[in-house]
Structure prediction request, 189 residues.
Amino acid sequence: MPARTPRTPSPAPTARRPRARPRPRPAPGWPARPPPATAGSPTATRWDATSPARAAAGSSTSAATAGSNSPGFRSISAVTLATHDMAAAVGFYEALGLEVAYGGADAGFTTLRVGGGQFLNLIAQPPERRWSWWGRFILHVDDVDAVHARALAAGLRPEAPPQDAEWGERYFHLIDPDGHEVSIARPLR
Prediction:
């Protein structure tokens, strides 16, 4: 039997970098990656966090933002939610007291008037298009308890009765037919 040669010791182990977590997969029907930007396409104007425009926009010394980080935004005029069942979604929001301004239960796109020049848009999506995000929007009202009573009378099921929160609002939550959370609230002064 031949003599064994001693093995040279291996170098000390180096610290291993943790594996990157896999990226979430897009919902069926959505591309794995956004299409490449081409001149004139909406993606051609994506915000570049390293651009000089970004630096200028973030600067608090510009005339438009002197003393503030806001460039004069006043409010959000509309929020758009996707729905798999336009009729159910329109019925839900009408039961809360929103009024159809455009479209309706049979439309592919509906605008509901919230009040004060603000709108909620609903856009129909095919049943196979699923989403996996969560979101909430808050509607400020004059009387939270009256809206809660109206919701119950319309057969809607709020998650809990109205309550006063430590952050200074009276509120309650509802889940719409597509899983979007709606918070009905009023500041507590």
